[in-house]
């Protein structure tokens, strides 16, 4: 199978390549350094990985493992190793965020109008019912049996793992490419969930990652200069639509089981782990700047946040030394330095 790819810009090394393709209802971007003879195979492996992950975890594909689990909610099911791993992570981060990250939001997403992939959203959906009852059920832990590799979902409650699986997929394939194929320098970006790495010899040549201006998608608000770092951005402005219930988006507040209505419209997190970054970017958007960052600062040491609020202000939470060394070309309204 041939996969189209291009070499990177002329200012980059001659053995750096890049590819962009669709998977998991988003754009996947892969930039890496490798020998010419290995480039096509590495791109094929990466593309195949994301397609495999989509087929296992998509709620839009009837034959996915996720849909199989949801059809059998209330029953004990044996699951694959990847599904077991992601479910364990989902339970971990649900507890870590005081259940703000909640994998049991599929029905709420459907009732908000997100019943198909974003490109094909239906505009008219019925109003939701029994929201409080569903929320109480959804806060029960997933019944996981690690030894038996089995899971039992609460009866009538359905999973949506879209809030964690992209960053998990990025982390897993990056680890594979580094450890098994010795890719010494790379950048993987799955719809805003991003991981960079470099060998010791390449550490001085940092990756530049743009942060989109939430008020103007044609502009970059900031540039992050990093190596061996993950970045994730969540927003209530991107995946947004209107139906008879009003303006809707894809970040569900588990307290109401409706799209969140906090003061935060976009949040970018940088740190070591792309999964951690993704979870906290969503959590801050859902809880809002004050409550979200309070929890974030208490439970995610070593991570930094750039928060945009609905009053068009930007807030930075991190170390003062990061401004100008990690966060480049940035104009912040309010600094909240971590000491």
TrEMBL record:
Its cofactor is Mg(2+). InterPro entries: ApbE (IPR024932), ApbE-like_sf (IPR003374). Keywords: FAD, Flavoprotein, Magnesium, Metal-binding, Transferase. It comes from the Bacteria. It is an enzyme of class 2 (transferase). Its EC number is 2.7.1.180. Coiled coil: none annotated. It catalyses: L-threonyl-[protein] + FAD = FMN-L-threonyl-[protein] + AMP + H(+). It holds the Pfam family ApbE. Belongs to the ApbE family. This is FAD:protein FMN transferase.
């Amino acid at each position: 199978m041939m996969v189209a790819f291009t070499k990177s810009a002329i200012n980059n090394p001659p053995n750096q390549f890049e590819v962009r393709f669709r998977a998991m209802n988003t754009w996947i971007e892969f930039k890496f350094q490798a020998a010419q003879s290995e480039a096509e195979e590495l791109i094929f492996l990466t593309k195949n990985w994301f397609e495999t992950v989509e087929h296992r975890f998509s709620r839009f594909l009837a034959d996915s493992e996720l849909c199989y689990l949801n059809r059998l909610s209330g029953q004990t099911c044996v699951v694959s190793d990847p599904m077991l791993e992601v479910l364990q992570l989902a339970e971990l981060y649900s507890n870590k965020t005081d259940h703000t990250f909640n994998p049991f939001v599929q029905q709420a997403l459907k009732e908000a109008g997100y019943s198909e992939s974003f490109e094909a959203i239906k505009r008219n959906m019925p109003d939701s019912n029994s929201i409080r009852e569903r929320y109480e059920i959804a806060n029960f832990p997933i019944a996981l049996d690690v030894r038996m590799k089995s899971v039992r979902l609460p009866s009538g409650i359905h999973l949506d793992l879209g809030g964690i699986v992209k960053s998990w997929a990025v982390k897993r394939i990056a680890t594979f490419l580094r450890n098994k194929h010795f890719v010494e320098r790379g950048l993987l970006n799955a719809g805003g969930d991003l991981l960079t790495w470099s060998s010791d010899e390449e550490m001085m040549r940092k990756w530049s990652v743009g942060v989109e201006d939430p008020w103007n998608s044609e502009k970059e608000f900031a540039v992050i200069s990093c190596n061996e770092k993950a970045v994730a951005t969540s927003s209530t402005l991107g995946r947004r639509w209107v139906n008879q219930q009003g303006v809707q988006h894809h970040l569900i507040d588990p307290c109401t089981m409706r799209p969140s209505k906090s003061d935060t419209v976009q949040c970018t997190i940088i740190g070591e782990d792309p999964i951690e970054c993704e979870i906290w970017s969503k959590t801050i958007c859902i809880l809002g700047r004050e409550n979200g960052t309070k929890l974030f600062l208490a439970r995610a040491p070593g991570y930094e946040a750039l928060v945009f609020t609905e009053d068009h202000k930007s807030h930075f939470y991190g170390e003062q030394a990061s401004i100008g060394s990690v966060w480049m070309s940035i104009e912040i309204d309010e600094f909240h330095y971590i000491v």
